[in-house]
């Protein structure tokens, strides 16, 4: 089966500084690019997406990633879970409008966590969706945790789980910048672009990324790179590309090399 995994970044789909601010034109264009690529070449795809300014506000306010501390924690979990699902509906709608048979797959219904990491998952629905030509769409979500009560599982963690169990060999991470830099390029004009992260330069680059780009409840850029490196060690290469450039996602799905490649 070997599906290609696509992650649409929350910072790309939303304005993360404004609560539940959807960048609808960007989302619609990306959905069209996905459909165009699949129309030109038979591709088994799973498209995941981050939460951006939808779930991150309640998740941060109630520290959902730290578990259940009191009754307010339960309320925070429900708000986060609802907000994540609400953004997912926008993504599904855009993909259907682009003529894709997209199906929402709510993570809190098919996986559980333990101390903030995925502990168990039931992936048969993904296998069946792909077998019949659907486009499954999971997303970063608030899930139940057997130790701390609740946790936030990032889209990268979810896609890594699916890559492991479905035999994926490639992931495309679609961001609001063209790849990984030594610092946040929007804050530091001297930030340098990193075309490739591999076993020879990872430790040096990791030190550069520490504390860069700010953070969010899923860990920020450093955490995302760390997860992609672990994927690379298991045979899944990644490309981090800009979703701001028209046709960039389509071209990469069809084989073009651009952005930052992470391999081992």
CATH hierarchy class name: Alpha Beta
Strand content: 15-25%
Largest sheet: 6 strands, mixed
Low-confidence stretches: none
Helix fraction by DSSP (H/I, runs of at least 4): 25-40%
In short:
The protein is α/β, with parallel strands linked by helices and 264 residues long.
Looking at this protein, list some descriptive labels.
264 residues, 6-stranded mixed sheet, 21% strand, two-stranded parallel sheet
Describe it for me?
The chain is α/β, with parallel strands linked by helices. It has a single domain (4-262), classed as Acetylglutamate kinase-like (Carbamate kinase). It is 39% helix and 21% strand. The strands form 5 sheets. The protein has a 6-stranded mixed beta sheet. The protein has a two-stranded parallel sheet with strand order 3-6. The chain has a two-stranded antiparallel ribbon with strand order 4-5. A hairpin with a 2-residue loop joins strand 4 and strand 5 (117-121). It is globular.
Secondary structure elements and their pairing?
Elements: E1 4-8, H1 10-13, H2 24-40, E2 45-49, H3 56-61, H4 71-97, E3 102-104, E4 111-114, E5 117-121, H5 124-131, E6 135-137, E7 141-145, E8 149-153, H6 155-166, E9 170-175, E10 180-181, E11 193-194, E12 196-197, H7 202-209, H8 220-233, E13 237-242, H9 248-253, E14 260-262
Parallel strand pairs: 1-2, 1-9, 3-6, 9-13, 12-14
Antiparallel strand pairs: 4-5, 7-8, 10-11, 13-14
Helix pairs in contact: 2-4, 6-8
């Amino acid at each position: 089966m070997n599906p290609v995994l696509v992650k649409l970044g929350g910072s790309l789909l939303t304005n993360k500084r404004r609560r539940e601010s959807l960048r609808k034109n960007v989302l619609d264009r990306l959905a069209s690019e996905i459909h165009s690529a699949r129309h030109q070449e038979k591709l088994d795809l799973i498209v995941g997406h981050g939460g951006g300014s939808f779930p991150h506000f309640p998740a941060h306010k109630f520290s959902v990633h730290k578990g259940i501390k009191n009754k307010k924690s339960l309320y925070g979990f429900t708000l986060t879970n609802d907000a994540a699902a609400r953004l997912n509906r926008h993504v599904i709608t855009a993909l259907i409008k682009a003529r894709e048979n997209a199906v929402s797959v709510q993570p809190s219904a098919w996986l559980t966590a333990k101390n903030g990491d995925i502990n168990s998952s039931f992936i048969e629905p993904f296998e069946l969706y792909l077998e019949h030509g659907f486009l499954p769409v999971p997303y970063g979500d608030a899930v139940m945790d057997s130790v701390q009560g609740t946790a936030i599982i990032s889209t990268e963690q979810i896609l890594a789980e699916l890559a492991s169990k479905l035999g994926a060999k490639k992931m495309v991470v679609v961001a609001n910048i063209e790849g990984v830099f030594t610092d946040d390029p929007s804050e530091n004009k001297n930030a340098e672009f990193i075309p490739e992260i591999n076993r020879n330069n990872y430790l040096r680059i990791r030190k550069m990324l520490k504390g860069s780009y700010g953070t969010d409840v899923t860990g920020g850029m450093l955490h995302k790179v760390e997860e992609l490196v672990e994927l690379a060690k298991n045979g899944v290469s990644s490309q981090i590309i800009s979703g701001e450039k028209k046709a960039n996602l389509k071209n990469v799905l069809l084989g073009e090399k651009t952005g930052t490649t992470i391999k081992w």
